[in-house]
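This section describes the prediction task in plain terms. A model, or a person checking by hand, is given the sequence of a single protein chain and must write out its three-dimensional structure as a string of tokens. No templates, partner chains or ligands are provided. The sample shown here is typical of the held-out split.
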Amino acid sequence: VAFWPKPLSRTSPSALARWVTAPGIEATMDDEGENEFVSEQVNEIVKNVITKTLGAAQYNKDRVNAWSTQIVDETLKELAKLNKPFKYVVTSIIMQKNGTPLHTGLSLYWDTKTDGVTCVQVGLDSMDCITTVFAAMI
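The expected answer:
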């Protein structure tokens, strides 16, 4: 069981990026190297996609759906380019910074030796983006 325990706060520095890999579920795949889930590699992909999509934008409720869709779609495209034997699920949350905390959690029932999950949080001046990637080996 993995949880995102901290609420997002208004005091997050601009463009703060924090990467979190769920405890006990990190990249402990088989030792074939090329076919394992490498959380650092996935984190970098997600961070780049979020930065490219959101840049220095200010929160705009009319653009949130488009931003979320673009982050999810672009992340999946970049993951597919890795040519690894995984099925991927990508979720993205964009929340305006207004002092309201956000608590999320996840629970997984899978093989921690072959499957992986990682979560990337990027905080901007007016919003936070949390994108999670789940990978299940085929």
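For orientation: The first strand starts at residue 2 and ends at 4.
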